[in-house]
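During data preparation, we tokenized the protein backbone, and the record follows.
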Amino acid sequence: MPMNPTFGGELRRLREQAGRTLHDLARETNYSRSHLSRIERGEKRPSVALARRCDALFRAAGRLQELAEEEPPDLTEALPLPDRPLGRRGLLTAGAASLIGYNFPSGAGSARPADISLADPFRVQLEQMRRLGQSADPGTLLDLLGAQTRTVARLAVAQSSSDGAELLVLAAHFANYTGWMAQESGDNRAALDWTAKAVDLAEAGGDRDLSSYALVRQALVAFYDHDAAQTVALAGRAQSERLPSRIRGLAAQREAQGHALAGDERACLLSLDRARALFAAAPARTGADPVIGTSHLTDPAAMVTGWCLFDLGRPREAAEVFDRECLRIPDHALRSRTRYGLRRARAHAAAGEVERACEIASELLDLTVTARSATVTTDVRNLARELARFRTLRAVRELQPALSRALALTRP
């Protein structure tokens, strides 16, 4: 093997070693023979998607992907970890304004009946906001969510120790969801800032579990920035055995996505197995505490398995998983249905089932305006890029007007 092989040269070497012709490779990857020929000759740069499929086909363990992609950006400065939490006493003495930009009053709260919890109405409101977040523009919710975070935290510092701690943790859940909406709005910096606020509020309320989940959220930001190493590192730090099984399961599946992004199939599948086992071991949700992580996927590990299989260059298997799991998403979860449905369509297109891909996409593209977000925008663009290779097919031509409208209108 040459000291510094090119992608094209290495692809040709692996293809010839496997006894395949360019025609064979075109049929198995659903790329044209002429396109592959130009890549082997170094006349055209390969996509990471093609590299992943060829890695899977030739069992190259991510070697082709390494040659295809650029050096990933260093996110150590762009994605700082939260500062050391203040603790509740520090929160009260330093002033919560340092955390959430609000001037808290001092003094005791007004008396109320012992059997009435201030937290209950806000829990209901958080669930309603999460439901609203499935269909509303995430950017329009940020001010409201930020205000509610401040309101709950303001009430917390005026209460007794136990009531105040409960409200601080609930404020942390509001801050955590605000961070997710900020990310869906395309503002990763604000997403990380709100996640850091959630950590401080959770620690101040005595809840270390939610502060550990913040690492999973940071790993998701790194994943969407295509930084596999940072995704794996952050997710790995959120898998301490002292943490609840659900948080560890969410972290394990995020780690699996990082491994898939890096083309490490074995590590990815092991992480997915661990995620499934942890979700199975997690106790059923009881009480009124807000759910941590997604609340709209019946089996999060199964859906993430489909995503990982696609990133590992196995689109046909990914499509089979998406076909099954997308049917289980509730009707009201518009953004989840749209996001995963578009990935389902992309997997079918990558597997050469273009008419099926267009059929699925045609049912979703109108929803992309209602369920608009940064992630949905990315999924629309990725689907358009996948279908562009089949632009001469009738199904793609007929879908093009709706796809063009979605591309024009889906903005974070």
Remarks:
- The chain has three domains: 7-68, 87-300, 304-409.
- Confidence is low (pLDDT under 50) at residues 70-114.
- Residues 161-184 form the longest helix (24 residues).
- The chain has 22 helices and no strands.
